[in-house]
Amino acid sequence: MFNTLMQGLVLLVAGMGIVYLFLALMVWVMNRFATIIPRFNHILPDDEPKKKPRAPRPANSAPAAQPVPASAPGADAAEIRSALPGAVLRVSVKPGDHVAKDDELLVLDVMKMETPVRADRSGIIAAIRVTVGEKVNTGDVLALIA
Amino acid sequence: MKKLFLLLSFACPLAILGTTCLAQTPPGADNAAPVAIQPSKATTPTAENGDWRSMIGKVKKLKDDTGIKGFMAKDPPKYLAEGYMTPTGAMVPGKPAKIIGGLRYGVGQGLMILICLVLLYLAIVKEFEPLLLLPIGFGGLLANMPFAGVAAPPLVDSVTKLVVEPGGFLYYFFEFGISTGVFPIMIFMGVGAMTDFGPLIANPRTALLGAAAQFGIFMALLGALGLTTLFPEHIHFGLKEASSIGIIGGADGPTAIWLTTKLAPHLLGAIAVAAYSYMALVPIIQPPIMRWLVPEHERKIVMKQLRPVSKMEKVCFPLIVLLLCALLLPSSVPLIGAVMLGNLCREVGPNVARLADTMANPLINIVTIMLGLAVGSKLACEKFLNPETLGILALGLMAFAGGTAAGCLMGRLMNKVCKDPVNPLIGSAGVSAVPMAARVSNKVGLESDPANYLLMHAMGPNVSGVIGSAVVAGVLYTLCK
Question: A106, B184, B284, B363: which has the highest count of C-beta atoms within 10 A?
Fold first, then answer.
């Protein structure tokens, strides 16, 4: 009995050690390559070059409320930005609807998971910038709330 | 069904007067029953059949081959008790079936059918991993139908080595796909084709969280050995069995099936059921442990946004990992190689999109059906209805809890040590269960801060957990075989 238990302990130490070593080595190698590989990016260019510059993700608040120039109907319209990359599964509101804070605006499919996007303020929907099925990236504008 | 049996058992005594009852022979019964009558033979008696009176005798015997009789049968089918020969000529030894409490074999089968119905209920109503538990439950249902022989091996003539009677289709699914380890590998290809390693490439450190969460595997392994010490009369887990039980904590169905088939095939049914049930229960098992181990202020930590990863990096990643694996851990190459093949197809893009799409959708679905049914066919009462299964279920829960805890604690340590903040909640995603565990991290994080989406950060440990559990499986296989 003692013998098998000790064998188990040896397995524990060896197994965890090997997993840590392997993954740590992988981390090290990947950090090395992270500086080298991007130099060869031209060999295999990205399929869809990102045209839209990514908006920096707000640090500690809900998708930021920023005044939108020109395109926005009202000066106080706030953008609802996507915090995650995914696809639009359904849109729960339409322009002109009144929404309260934390109401569900639309639902994104992120990694096959339904992720509701909620209003960060109450107001009237000024515009919906996406259609069902559209792929969105982090920082893309989804809707405007006036 | 019941009606049919009643009709049949009522009609059989009357069959002496006529052959009308032939029309009511249940279609499944003539597969396995040695004296079953082929309707075509009934009209053209051959030499061995003799005259028409022997046919009446056979018809009378039909009543012994109904399911009702089957559920009252005392002994297991002959091939289980006495062993059988495979088409290649190898002998599989028989084992006396011991069922808990000395129940009749037929009653055991009845109980197994109830258990399979519970699995189906969990899959259909409770939506616990329905894609897997439904085929597993149904496979178990089919395999436990007495006399239907759905999972029976073929009958081989011991002298001529010719197949006298082909076996049931689940037998072939199992022999082709699981005994050989082909199905788990094919599933892994699909997993690779569905997985985006981008978050891991952008923040490789999180791979260490995936390593930490493998601790649950070894906790359950030690637990299994401990149980054997505590209850020596009821539970007998050797190192091989203990390793197979531990791998439940990898939270990775195909890895668990792969290792169990190689080390302890008799536990396959219980281990697969435990692994998939607990994977479905991840959203219930993990959050209390995470809330307990991670204080509120650390749950609110916002992580630095992940950098965009170029296509070149994504294409190189599978090749680099495979190379590393080949250099250091050849025993893990089958599993990791399959994942990386799938992932490479995914990342190369439009040119091989058809291959990636096939792996990620039709192929994995087809294999899932066959894998589920084949695993279900191993839910036999003599292997499932014993105290060891209870032990396996308890140890599996322990493995999941241990992995979650180790991941969270490692996350806290990394947050202290590393320059960039790490939210310890993503550590729990290190138990693979892609992408369920990452969703749980995300959800628990949102409870503390509704604007802090951890999903993409949690994908790093999550996918490295897949690599980690494949590594552990390879190590355990090498050390215990």
Answer: B184
The mean pLDDT of A118-144, rounded to a whole number, is: 85
Confidence of residue A65 (pLDDT cuts 50, 70, 90): very low
Q: Fold for A78-145, please state it.
A: OB fold (Dihydrolipoamide Acetyltransferase, E2P) (2.40.50)
The residue of chain B with its CA nearest to that of A8 is B222
Q: Residue B435 class from Cβ within 10 Å (0-12 exposed, 13-18 middle, 19+ buried)?
A: buried
- Crossing angle (nearest 10°) for helices B282-293 and B268-280: 60
How many degrees, rounded to 5, is the angle at CA B232 between CA B228 and CA B237? 35
Q: Are A85 and A136 in contact (CB under 8 A)?
A: yes
Q: Does the beta-carbon distance from B239 to A30 stay under 8 Å?
A: no
Residue B51 has pLDDT above 80, yes or no: no
Through-space distance between the first and last CA atoms of chain B, rounded to whole angstroms = 46
β-pairing verdict for B163-165 and A98-99:
unpaired
Token pair 């073929």 in the structure block, residue: B154
**pTM to 2 decimals?**
0.81
Residue-range domain boundaries for chain B: 2-65, 79-167, 176-480
Q: Residue A93 is encoded by which pair of tokens?
A: 């509101």
With contacts defined as CB-CB under 8 Å, which chain B residues touch A115?
A: 455
B305-342 pLDDT, tens per residue? 888 888 999 999 999 999 999 999 999 999 999 999 99
Please report the pLDDT score of residue B234 as a whole number: 84
Answer yes or no: is pLDDT of A47 > 70.
Answer: yes
Q: Find chain B residues with C-beta within 8 A of A23's C-beta.
A: 207-208, 210-211, 464, 467-468, 471
Instruction: Give the start-to-end residue ranges of the domains of chain A.
Output: 2-43, 78-145
